[in-house]
Amino acid sequence: MSARKLVKIVYRALQLAFVGLVIAHSLLDLGYPWWWNFLPIALSFVILVVAHRWGGTPDSPRAAREPVEVDPPVTGRWSALNSPADRTPSHGTHAYGQTFAIDVVAEPEEGARPGFRWLWPIARRSSAFPAFGAPLLAVADATVVRAVDDQRDHLSRTSLLALMYLMIVEASVRDLSGVKRVVGNHVVLDLGDGTFALYAHLRNGSLTVREGDRVTAGQQLARCGNSGNSTEPHLHFQLMDTPDPDTARGIPFTWRGVGVPRNRETFEAPTAESQAA
Question: Where is the M23ase beta-sheet core domain (predicted)?
């Protein structure tokens, strides 16, 4: 077990200790001030910050790498969210190797994707979003090193109430449960040269590959879904330096023919046939 993996285990154990102390303090007279209960969770975040800076931060000269050019993982008209073209870390954290991660949602035409609502509907079915079920493609010739496909697709979190539930309750529970519950159904490809591609939040039952399979660029791997820590059906894509997001550092990417789209930028991902032409 690597030191970084051990740190993540200690981090989760300290968070669980915080929950246990809060419950015990509310039920029992433990004889110390209530604010001492926050010591484990404070220590857990200090440990995590230190762990993320081992060997330099992901964007420091010591750890920096040139962007790796790969094919787009989707085809058709999409929009980018949480893009590393606007900021790094793109999702506000270096955790899970997502320093240079990007989220993309299908936008086949203007208004086709349901937008955020303050009150109603509280949630929508995944099938209401055009990204749900869209094919996801291998970005390069590679070997499948992880393939997980046993989690359900849940309702959207695209209202104020649902989003608060996600941020306050669901995200914390998933983080404590481990990386698998955060990324949901997922595939990790070994692209070679110490580079791994993660596709997260895949549709349940949609995997067309297994661990150990060799795939070629443009080959379908799965379909877009809404599993894991996800607000709506979308693809979370990132490159990283190990196959385990728990211990990985992010690697910058650029998509051939597209580049790195900025937040809210709509882009047309070329098909393999159009690239060949």
Answer: 178-241
186-192 and 220-223: which strand pairing?
Answer: unpaired
What gap in Å lies between CA 63 and CA 70, rounded to an integer? 20
- Tokens 């650029």 -> residue: 254
Cα distance between residue 253 and residue 89, in whole Å: 13
Tokens of 246: 């728990």
C-beta of residue 67 within 8 angstroms of C-beta of residue 98: no
The CATH fold assigned to 68-276 is Glucose Permease (Domain IIA) (2.70.70)
Q: What is the DSSP letter of 73?
A: S
**How many C-beta neighbours within 10 Å does residue 266 have?**
12
Please list the residues that pair with 69 across neighbouring strands: 254
DSSP conformational letter for 71: -
Q: What is the pLDDT of residues 171-205, one digit of tens each?
A: 777 877 778 888 999 999 999 999 999 999 999 99
pLDDT tens, 250-277?
999 999 999 999 999 999 987 655 444 4
SS3 of 104-172: the string is EEECCCCCCCCCCECCCCCCCCHHHCCCCCCEEECCCCEEEEEEECCCCCCCCCCEHHHHHHHHHHHHH
Q: What are phi and psi of 119, to 5 degrees?
A: -120, -50
Cis status of the peptide bond prior to 108, with omega within 30 of 0: no
